[in-house]
Fold:
Amino acid sequence: MQIKTLAQFEAFLKTRIPTREALFVGEIGLKRAKHFMKLLGNPQNQIKVIHVAGTSGKGSTAHLTSRLLQSQGFRVGLSISPHIFDIRERIQIDNQLPSEKLLLKYFNQILPVIQKMETCRYGGPTYFEILVGLAYHIFAQEKMDYAVIETGLGGRLDGTNTVSSKNKICLLTKIGLDHTEILGNTIPEITKEKVGIIQSQNTVISNGQSVTSNQIIIERCKEKNALLYFIKPEKNYKLSSSTKTTTVFDFKFNFNQNKKGAWHQLPTTAFFWCHFEKIKLGLIGAHQIENCCLALACLSILADRDKFKIDESKMRSALQKISIPGRLEIRKVGNKFLIIDGAHNLQKMTAFVTSLKIIFPQQKFDFILAFKKGKDFQKMSRLILPIANHVFLTGFSTSNQDGPWNSIASAEIAKHFKKEKFANFSIVKNNQKEIHSIIKQSKKSVVLTGSLYLIGSVYKYL
Structure:
């Protein structure tokens, strides 16, 4: 069997999308992923991996880390999910989509292994596992200097969690309540899943979390003899300004190593290994500073470990120019704005709405809204409705992602709106005519949010 076109590649992967019941099968899924990687020769251990987990901001952090490393002249692989425009977003080389020729060349190399696994005790790899395995294979074959890998869900049992090399760096973004039906109903339960990516002697950089989460992270690092750094506001970063075009902040980070190999943050009076003032970040919103500082700390640690000097001018240029689809994009449309953000849980929606209020004070918006099934839309809606002039409820259904994802029925959300005494809503179809009409005719700025899957479905109209 030979796959000759990108369309055939996508058609093959669609046959590997598991049913909802088979999406998360616990330990067996990780065993299958490890077996798959073993048959491929464990390419994930042939490259320097930066592994990103967390509830909010892991996609942005992965992008930022990849761009920073590329700005310093390194070849960088980037694996993210879900994709928005093109399936090849999941396997990027130097922040560009791989050519169809290159992708198919390497996919055909691993196809016999995929087919061989169909009869093994774990079963064949899933859509997500195939793409992760292909990413590791390509990054190793193409001799990437670094590979930035975003977890799919959780961490401990995630299909990306097959790296056993000690030089892995783990980045932990903000941890909160999401995917509770799979990861657990409490922050401690979810944190334990996220820290599962931390392996023996890894280096770990975490945003400041809740007291409970911090303790769980510390205990995991002790257990695995991992080096740990926390990035905290005021101590490590400080916001200067947040506008429609730029977020400006200061960053400082320091560390030392004792003879036993344990690492500690130095007191704030000590010399800072790196101190950058007035960094201009092309991503909008104060919450993106946290993600950017994880990436900057990672760059600093790698510079020390791998013996290279940070080119500050190129670093600053990369951050100022960066944009990421679906992360607080602001587009001018006539005399108003179209604002696009894939916020899909309470933590992300809180950060998004907070940024909207800072950038557009005292304004209301028309929202185009849909949430994935299983999300806590009630709590997210309570954040949205106070700044909503009108809400257009729509929907989505995926056929080109790693699971059969569907949106919550608009009628169910409408029922909740009525209970909240909010009457300014309409139910609309997700098609080009409807979406264009809303954007064109709305007198207010329009906000498109609620799910990256919604963003992906609408992008083709914009």
Residues 257-272 have pLDDT under 50 and may be disordered. Residues 6-321 form a domain with the UDP-N-acetylmuramoyl-L-alanine:D-glutamate ligase fold (CATH 3.40.1190.10). The radius of gyration is 22 Å.
